[in-house]
Amino acid sequence: xxxxxxxxxxxxxxxxxxxxxxxxxxxxxxxxxxxxxxxxxxxxxxxxxxxxxxxxxxxxxxxxxxxxxxxxxxxxxxxxxxxxxxxxxxxxxxxxxxxxxxxxxxxxxxxxxxxxxxxxxxxxxxxxxxxxxxxxxxxxxxxxxxxxxxxxxxxxxxxxxxxxxxxxxxxxxxxxxxxxxxxxxxxxxxxxxxxxxxxxxxxxxxxxxxxxxxxxxxxxxxxxxxxxxxxxxxxxxxxxxxxxxxxxxxxxxxxxxxxxxxxxxxxxxxxxxxxxxxxxxxx
Length: 283
What we know:
Elements: E1 3-7, H1 18-27, E2 32-35, H2 43-53, E3 59-70, E4 73-80, H3 87-114, H4 121-125, H5 136-145, H6 152-158, H7 175-184, E5 188-191, H8 200-208, E6 214-219, H9 224-236, E7 240-244, H10 266-282
Parallel strand pairs: 1-2, 2-3, 5-6, 6-7
Antiparallel strand pairs: 3-4, 4-5
Helix pairs in contact: 1-2, 5-6
């Protein structure tokens, strides 16, 4: 069984829409995928409907990746199998979406005033699917399109960073709140790519007390040593281990498609489903 539990679509900063994701997953011979857009859950239904209508033998796991900032670190919390009708979970998504829009407006205003770049909110908004999550990648692309930078990487270096006079940090919920709300919505909260967070070990202990149930040990950024470290950390706190490609776009540096290329053992799927059953039985 081939699985990929970390995939993004055009509803956040991915370049393929949900149907294209399913089609690409078919090409990669994946049996199960999780759509985990940043602060957004709209891709689930589209992908699932497409799979059912076309009798495709593939499981679509509903997921999300909540972006938070804690002690100066970007901390991302994945969630799986949430009840999308849960009021607190809906409010979490709404708060995160509002913060993204406010940040974008503020940055655009500063780009116009201080950098002399003629960018409109609509220039950024059109780069994401309707009601999708607007983010820094879209702002960087808009900067590049208007001639403010030679490419997206240069846009980040010049404008999209804490040292830039035009950058405004996004207001977010804490990772602790994200874990608690996902848990209360009958979901499985998971610490995403912990290699990016220098205080990951200490933070994991804190988040366990808030309801954290998993840690993403298998990730394209993780070396074999990192996989072993975070797997050991998961064992220490009785957490499940997850993993995925964190797919955003095809990469010429890694072959045509990155999706599914990150090795994720089949037993991870079994553990995830077992955790889902435990949560259902506990309700």
